[in-house]
Amino acid sequence: MKVLFAASEALPLVKTGGLADVAGALPGALAALGVDIRVVLPAYRGTLDKLVDRKPLGELLVRGQRFVVWEGTVGHGKVRHWLIDCPALYAREGDPYHNARQQPWSDNAWRYGCFAEAIARLALGEGCGGWKADVVHGNDWQTGLAAAWLKLLRDPAPRCVFTIHNLAYSGLFPRSAFEALGLPPGWWAIEGLEFHGQMSMLKAGLHWADAITTVSPNYAREIRTARFGQGFEGLLEHLSPRLHGILNGIDETFWNPATDPYLAQTYNAASLRAGKAANRAALSAELGLPQDNGKLLVGLIGRLTEQKGFDVVLAALPELMQLPIQLAMLGAGDRILEASFAAAAARYPGRIGLKLGYDERLAHRIEAGADLFLMPSRFEPCGLNQMYSQRYGTVPVVHRVGGLADTVVDASPRTLKNGTATGVVFNDVDVGGVVWGIRRGLELLADPVARVGLQYSGMSRDFSWTTAAKQYLALYR
Ligand code: ADP
């Protein structure tokens, strides 16, 4: 089975969100199951230097431009990566999608339209010495047009699997971008990539793929409803026979409290109590919080966007600060939210340890040092931090939505008794819901038997990528 796995970001080359975690780990897990897999990305600035044993593989002609294809491996992995090199399009200052002022690149339609065509040509053996894919696995809108190109360039084409990591990003562009790309006029149709008068590259992926997946079974159901469907719910309901939910795994090597190099002290289930106490003390010191064993430490990490529900935490603070808790928070994004949290930290001295910015190491230390971990997302395709929390013996408190509902087992009398409970799941993202969730968490952790039960069942769960990889392989077949 030969699979071309295409993504606009992948660890350790480049990351802006959860997609990079998936694209960095799933191909290796598939290779371990015997899949002959190649990962293809644009050659962003600095990425070619990270390619081990780099060599030029071939050339592609895409929309009149010459792309060089480089091959190599990354990190300590064996999976071969192909980087599409066209410096004028991809090797720029800034993140893959934005300039230094955080504005989307004005030619993103062209950049990813060309990337998608390059993916299709590579899958058919062009520019890569004749290696031909049986299956092309595209991810998110940046690769959506690849499915359309494949069907146009070859019949029968390799089969196409398209994964939605977040339906909120639909790759919308004006009709002029469609014209500029010189796409076949027939594609501009309801049964194509037209979406309310605009071009949606995500819709191209949905429409032309043979199978669609998303990153949790619950999100796969939710996106067929108006509340979560972002306008695609009708189409997704129509396509539901080919829509599958496959839960993401986590990188259990990188996120392992027994070996984590970023922690003050490593620990496992046997050394949990002492390990967490040491990490909590170190984390409090790092964030400038007074050591206060009469309070529990609640962790929060994430992009500060509407999706993640941090505005609700702000609204709930007057009530939350009545409870015996401190907050350890790490996040970056919306400037207004950043300023509001900075103001809140000043208003409640000694109660809120805040770091604004992106800090991978601190994220590990918060997972290890916190007692509870709060995720009040309005929607969450899968979510990773609630899985990291369980692995680190930190009890997640989450909204009953998307992948959060699939991965956290709410502590009910029944689940506490049968030993499956791992956290607290609350029903509504509002002040009442969040305060209820934290109160419930406090109540559970105050009971030593419940506390240890929740921590141990969380730590012993299997969130490995192998489980997901087996499901993808079954779908490819
Ligand atoms: P999303 O992809 O919607 O941002 P996920 O939970 O799927 O959400 O993945 C986010 C990943 O990025 C997690 O690994 C999380 O720990 C990490 N992350 C988010 N914000 C930060 C930050 N400010 N500093 C460090 N890591 C972060």
Describe the structure.
There is one protein chain. By secondary structure, the chain is an alpha/beta fold. Helices cover 38% and strands 21% of the residues. The chain is built from 18 helices and 18 strands. The protein has a 9-stranded mixed beta sheet with strand order 3-4-5-2-1-6-7-11-12, with helices on both faces. A 6-stranded parallel beta sheet has the order 15-14-13-16-17-18, sandwiched between helices. A 3-stranded antiparallel beta sheet has the order 8-10-9. α10 (310-320) packs parallel to α11 (335-347) and α13 packs across α17. The chain starts with a strand and ends with a helix. The model has no long low-confidence stretch (mean pLDDT 96). The structure holds adenosine-5'-diphosphate. The site of adenosine-5'-diphosphate has 17 residues, from α1, β13, β14 and α12.
Share of residues in helices: 25-40%
- DSSP helical segment count: 18
Strands, count: 18
For the sheet with most strands, the description reads:
9 strands, mixed
General form: globular
User: Biggest sheet, strands in spatial order?
Assistant: 3-4-5-2-1-6-7-11-12
Oligomer classification: single chain
Strand-residue proportion: 15-25%
Map the helices and strands:
Layout: E1 2-6, H1 18-32, E2 36-42, E3 52-62, E4 65-73, E5 80-85, H2 87-90, H3 108-123, E6 135-139, H4 144-153, E7 159-164, E8 172-173, H5 175-180, E9 194-195, E10 198-200, H6 201-208, E11 211-214, H7 217-222, H8 233-238, E12 243-245, H9 272-287, E13 296-304, H10 310-320, E14 325-333, H11 335-347, E15 352-356, H12 360-369, E16 372-375, H13 385-391, E17 395-399, H14 402-407, H15 413-418, E18 424-426, H16 431-446, H17 448-459, H18 465-476
Parallel strand pairs: 1-2, 1-6, 2-5, 6-7, 7-11, 11-12, 13-14, 13-16, 14-15, 16-17, 17-18
Antiparallel strand pairs: 3-4, 4-5, 8-10, 9-10
Helix pairs in contact: 1-18, 3-4, 4-6, 9-12, 10-11, 10-16, 13-17
Bound molecules: adenosine-5'-diphosphate.
